[in-house]
């Protein structure tokens, strides 16, 4: 039987059976007639209303509840209360990583939404999927109490492992127009990735905490521009799912309006792409209520120890306030049921 080799988050390529309709993302895909064509051409796509609007509004409200629940003085109706002293630790990029937030009920509810899981099932032609325990994004406008959010154009995969390896995603939960901050992608840059890295093989890399992150220098940005690539701010409504190829250069912008931005990062991969060792590491992350970054195979695992002014935040939490309720389907996404005895 013939087979096709595809790259995944694992070190070894995966053999796909010839009959698999999994997207190959290597120029050999058919025309699909839906958002998958945008993904292939541009490196990103928007899946409109992956979550019904009323659910998106409910999850956004729960996210506000969570922030107010620290009882530090933040009030959703008063933007003057947006201050680092009144909020949990959130980076200038809007990222909240600790406090077990990735295992709160709203995060799991978003990950388990049929329209979200279904989009990734379509990509991989596989219902046995793992989901990442990734960060939550709370971006508030006009913050002067934390460092400015400077552009950090990057790819989320190691240039030494070319080819399509991971599809990243986020669910947008508040209105997100052109100036409301959020994802900006270099349109078509994913398809130039291999050529780019051949060209820049001798350029010193911007230091990063993981080889699975590549930052673009000014020279790299110029190369992309000279190739005709244009950066596009991706706009979305509450409930829309944004997906992008990890090879696509991207970063995020801050809001310059009065509109906050809330998003939950959701990335899935087939269970068959993960090793048993990956699944055991992921189980441990689940049991400790920590994050995994966007890699669903728990390539990296995090911590719930946030720091405030260089010391451990006294408001740290090590388990979610509102524990998720799992169905069999959503619990499968943890990978735990796939661990062999
Ligand atoms: Fe990224």
From TrEMBL:
Extent of Basic and acidic residues compositional bias: 306-319
Protein's organism: Friedmanniomyces simplex
A Pfam family it matches: PhyH
Region: Disordered, residue numbers: 297-319
Protein name as annotated: Phytanoyl-CoA dioxygenase
Membrane-spanning residues: none
